[in-house]
Write a structure and sequence with these properties.
The complex is a heterotrimer of chains A (332), B (294) and C (242). In chain A, helix 2 packs parallel to helix 7, helix 4 runs antiparallel to helix 10 and helix 12 crosses helix 13. Chain A is mostly helical and 332 residues long. Chain A is globular, with a radius of gyration of 20 Å. Chain A has 16 helices and two strands. Chain A has a two-stranded antiparallel sheet. Helix content of chain B is 75%, strand content 3%. Chain B has eleven helices and two strands. Chain B has a two-stranded antiparallel sheet with strand order 1-2. The longest helix of chain B has 32 residues. Chain B starts with a helix and ends in an 8-residue tail after the last helix. With 242 residues, chain C is α/β, with parallel strands linked by helices. A six-stranded mixed β-sheet of chain C has the order 6-7-8-3-9-10, with helices on both faces. In chain C, strands 2-1-4-5 form a four-stranded antiparallel β-sheet, covered by helices on one side. The longest helix of chain C is centred in the last third of the chain and has 18 residues. The two termini of chain C are 32 Å apart. The chains are: A mainly alpha (332), B mainly alpha (294), C alpha/beta (242). Chains A and B meet through helix 5, helix 12 and helix 14 of A and helix 3, helix 4, helix 9 and helix 11 of B.
């Protein structure tokens, strides 16, 4: 068997190991639960965003729309079914709704946007998050501009003990599961025939089509999966925050953060967005305590610097440094 | 509905539409020559608005003068942007320049917040008003429309009647071919970005002739989205389309809220912005080339 | 004889330019057809319309009698229309064999194992098997042309469109690659259509030749007849090199 194939397993094992260590720390050191959640959130964000960016070289600037849809889906499940069904079932329904909402939006937006070039898609998606937000606020659906608060529903139907169980244990568990799912999906896409399709599409879409690749199908696939993973992130976030407000849920900040993580790490790889997610969480925490109000400015500068000087990120830098050696082949 | 009310809205729509044409023109012109999507357009408009604000508040300068300074600032910024950021990104996959522009927008926004604080600013600059039927149109708005129209036609004149303008048009029409003609293409890229950003920042000052309040670091997003819609509607990369697209859009934006406000349980402002987004999607679905695109 | 590909009165306009002005062409099974014509005659546009990268303004394309004019490029590739591009757009960061496997998986609709085996076999046919696991970016120009040929052939096409396969090559290379093309097309039972601008040597390998100029097909016949034709020689104005 081709040696490179074996090495791709290595990054999977390392990635899963890192998440397992974090899970272990979460269980053993309860006082760090918040921080660990924070870290796993950014790991998941990076990996989920990378599924689309890394495999198609398209950027979904309104990515927060998926995270928001996930949050709203879970809020709907709670509002509609709390008291009727037990909490785990309600959460399960919330998850299914999140997948449904994300899939519908991804297919509609993808159908309109992915048949076009990257510039048009970028324009469409920059307006996307705001577009959905203005629909909610303008037509007073889904709570309108006041948003939705679910804490009261949970306390009313299940008691305050369930509230802390959900917002601490269930939220954290779901975030870990989202991270693991993102790892597995990325790994699968890197090791199936899809990998060839994506490579070809990124190189030249017309040529890829001339050799039989249904480029729109693969772009839609990556976009939908990325969107669904984002929605799962949003589900966990809603369970943690117990509320969702359109003013902040649809902000473009998540996109900037995801760009830092995936571009600086190395888009299209498995391990590097993950590691960068951890580093990013640390950096963000540091900046928030030491230089509050400057984070976005600094992150924006980081993106520009990375794009200009290190477009392939840490992964690319490592590949070039160890060019020709075995190590180069492990960088995935 | 009174006829004069509708007519006033139409007039209003045309007047703001001229500004929108200018805003869309900047984006589409820059994209046409450099294949660069200026996602920071709204933020640069914000800078132009602040320029008008500060020059008025500190030196009593009218926005009509400030816009000249804003244009110069824009020209310089455009050149600086080209040499530092844009130049290296040309020829690379689109995602890099798209990400850079996006990050730049946030950078400018946060920098403005750092320098001038998040508070809303405004100033009052009164040039009297013109009476039309039972309504009063501020003279500043009339000036704003005239200046927007002048700037738009100045660019058109430049593109169609001057030698360097024609070179720029040939680059727009044939990006790959233009490199082969032996002309120093980098000079033209630099020129185009300078002119484009010049118009961009200037339009921020012109904006204050229409609305001189609500100036804050986060005001840019609306205008970026607006620029996108007008540019795509007119044809992304086709400057000829901006005038018509801007006017159409100005009219829609003027007439729609009155319509939507009548529907119960609907907030006219966010609903209008939602429809703006829908229009963008519909254009991308049905005719992505826009009105005059190739 | 079976008509593999039928181009029926195809027209394509770009603004005021008539890139294709009513082109009708029948391509017969197992023949090696040469399309000659000066720069701008419409040869690349014709290929683009046949493969589906461009939609014709008028006319149809029939593949074994089936109307494929509305099919997207990937479907046409899967049906068996392959194209080797003039400037090979290979995935330079991937290995040589990966580029071939790609075409087997999608154009050839094979599974991963079959694709690997087929790719190795085809690389052997063109003489690149030793470099199968090299990075594509490191190949020389002629090697890249061979790889481009390999991946087009690997997907088991019925028709192979060769886009200026010998442009800029010294005569020895031209002979090598064209005898290879002829050998492979015969072995694999592929109908080959080669589009060439200048090289006479190339045309002599063909069974039949067609002369295009200003978006129209003006002449058709055996390669020798065409090369000796007055109109052809006039258009080329002495540029014909032996």
């Amino acid at each position: 068997m081709q040696p490179v194939f074996l090495f791709r397993h290595l990054t999977l094992i390392v990635s899963l190991a890192i998440v397992s260590v974090l899970a272990l720390l979460r269980i053993m050191l309860f006082e760090y639960a918040q921080m660990i959640y924070f870290i796993v959130f950014y790991i998941s964000l990076g990996l989920a965003f990378n599924v689309f960016l890394g495999f198609t070289d398209y950027v979904c600037f309104g990515y927060s729309v998926f995270i928001a849809l996930g949050g709203y889906a879970m809020a709907h499940a709670i509002k509609w079914f709390a008291g009727v069904l037990n909490p785990p079932l309600v959460i399960a329904i919330g998850l299914l709704l999140a997948i449904l909402y994300a899939l519908i939006l991804a297919l509609i937006t993808g159908f309109i946007g992915l048949r076009l070039k990257e510039a048009y898609f970028a324009i469409a998606t920059i307006g996307l998050a705001q577009g959905v937000r203005f629909f909610i606020e303008g037509f007073h659906v889904w709570g309108g501009s006041e948003g939705l608060i679910v804490a009261s529903n949970i306390i009313a139907h299940y008691g305050s003990k369930w509230l802390s169980t959900i917002s601490i244990d269930y939220a954290d568990l779901l975030m870990f599961l989202t991270a693991i799912l993102s790892i597995l999906i990325t790994y699968y896409l890197l090791n199936s025939r899809a990998r060839y399709a994506f490579m070809a599409i990124k190189e030249d879409e017309d040529v890829a089509r001339s050799f039989g690749v249904n480029s729109v199908k693969y772009k839609l696939l990556a976009f939908s999966i990325s969107g669904i993973l984002g929605a799962l992130l949003g589900v966990s976030k809603l369970l943690k925050d117990q509320a969702i407000f359109p003013g902040e849920a649809f902000s473009l900040t998540f996109t900037l953060e995801a760009l830092v993580i995936t571009l600086a790490g190395g888009k299209g790889t498995l391990m590097f967005p993950l590691v960068l997610g951890i580093l990013y969480a640390g950096l963000k925490y540091f900046l928030t305590t030491m230089f509050p109000g400057l984070q976005l400015l600094i992150f924006a500068v980081i993106v520009i610097v990375v794009v200009e000087l290190f477009p392939e990120g840490v992964a690319g830098w490592l590949r070039r440094r160890y060019k020709g050696t075995l190590i180069e082949k492990i960088i995935t | 509905m009174e006829y004069s009310y509708i007519l006033i809205n139409i007039l209003s729509g045309v007047m703001i539409g001229l500004l929108y044409s200018l805003i869309g023109l900047s984006l589409t012109f820059i994209f046409g020559v450099l294949q660069f999507v200026n996602s920071a357009e709204g933020q640069l408009i914000m800078i132009g608005a602040y320029v008008a604000y500060w020059l008025f508040v500190l030196y009593g300068l009218s926005p009509l003068v400030s816009l000249l300074i804003a244009s110069l600032l824009g020209l310089v910024l455009g050149m600086a942007l080209y040499t530092t950021v844009v130049k290296r990104l040309m020829g690379l996959p689109a995602l890099y320049s798209l990400s850079a522009a996006f990050a730049l927008a946030i950078f400018i926004q946060e920098l403005a917040k750092l320098l001038w604080g998040p508070t809303y600013r405004g100033f009052i600059f009164d040039m009297g008003s013109l009476r039309v039927f039972n309504f009063y149109i501020p003279a500043t708005r009339i000036w704003g429309s005239i200046i927007s129209a002048i700037l738009v036609f100045m660019l058109y004149y430049y593109l169609y009647r001057t030698k360097s303008g024609r070179v720029l048009r040939s680059i727009i029409q044939n990006p790959e071919g233009a490199v082969l003609t032996g002309v120093n293409i980098y000079r033209y890229y630099l020129l185009a970005l300078a002119i484009g950003i010049g118009l961009n920042v200037a339009s921020g000052s012109v904006l204050t002739l229409y609305v001189s309040s609500g100036i804050n670091p986060y005001m840019g997003d609306v205008y970026t989205n607006l620029a996108f819609i007008v540019a795509v509607l007119g044809g992304l990369g086709a400057p000829e389309g901006s005038l018509l697209a801007g006017l159409i859009f100005g009219l829609i934006e003027s007439l729609l809220p009155a319509f939507l406000g009548n529907i119960p349980n609907v907030d006219a402002y966010p609903a209008t912005r939602f429809f703006m987004f829908v229009i963008l999607m519909v254009v991308l679905l049905v005719r992505p080339k826009g009105l005059m695109g190739r | 004889m079976n008509i593999v590909l039928k181009v029926e009165n195809v027209a394509k306009y770009f603004g005021g330019i008539r890139a294709l002005d009513g082109v009708t062409l029948d391509i017969y099974e197992n023949e090696l057809l040469a399309i000659i014509g000066p720069n701008g005659a419409g040869k690349t546009t014709l290929f683009n319309v046949i493969t589906g990268l461009l939609k014709p303004d008028k006319g149809r394309i029939l593949f074994f009698g089936k109307d494929i004019t509305k099919l997207p490029p990937e479907r046409r590739a899967q049906l068996g229309i392959a194209r080797a591009f003039q400037i090979p757009k290979l995935i330079s960061s991937a290995s040589v064999i990966d580029n071939v496997i790609l075409s087997c998986l999608f154009g050839g609709k094979m599974n991963l194992n079959t694709a690997r085996n087929r790719s190795l076999k085809v690389l052997e046919m063109v003489g690149l098997d030793r470099k199968a696991y090299e990075t594509t970016g490191n190949l020389t120009s002629p090697e890249k042309k061979l790889l481009e040929l390999a991946r087009a052939v690997a997907m088991r096409p019925r028709v192979l469109l060769l886009d200026e396969i010998v442009a800029g090559m010294p005569p020895v290379e031209v002979d090598n690659i064209l005898s290879l093309v002829k050998k492979i097309s015969t072995e694999e039972k592929i109908t080959a259509v080669a589009m060439v601008e200048h090289v006479v040597r190339a045309v002599r390998y063909a069974d039949r030749a067609v002369f295009m100029h200003q978006g129209k097909i003006l002449l058709e016949g055996s390669p020798n007849d065409l090369l000796n034709n007055k109109l052809v020689r006039d258009v080329y104005l002495g540029e014909i090199v032996e």
